[in-house]
Design a protein that fits this description.
Elements lengths: L1 H8 L1 H7 L4 H30 L9 H26 L3 H18 L11 H7 L3 H13 L8 H27 L9
Amino acid sequence: SVMSAEKTDGVLSRSMFAGVKLVELLTSLFCMCTVIISMEIVVTCFVAYSVFFNPIIVSSGLFLYVFVLMISGWMGFFFGVLTAVLSTTKVGGMYAITGLSLSQFLLSGAVWPVEGQPEFLRLFSQFIPMRLLGNTMNNVALKGWSLSHPSIIMGISTTLVYTILLVLLLIILGKYKKQWWVIQK
């Protein structure tokens, strides 16, 4: 939303005109996002596991658990930047993010159990990043599985592939769509 707001308000085009490189802007936003994600992880894990005493098996899984949460946040950041690049208005970007996030949330098993889904949706929902991350986090926290387990390797590697694909898509759009930070009127 920060990128969309700066794009529609013209702040990005003025910054680019002043000499700020796009890589510098994205790096600063990424660093800021990483700090925010880190604070969210600390607060959320403290509340979930210290205040409410949710079970967690802390063998080697705490670092892995935090790493999975960081990957999730980074994937969300790159998806938000991609949405800001492709949308021309704030409302269009918010519709895209809300629609895709809500559909992932519903199909990942968070609201509607995967076992109750029709077969064609169940096949599709196996590859949704939110479901992969949720299963990986459950397996690490509740079952105590480490990075040597095939399910954990598959969940993390698939999520990393999704994140890398988003970054590559942003790089390709940056090469072919010149001045994507400027809204043409």
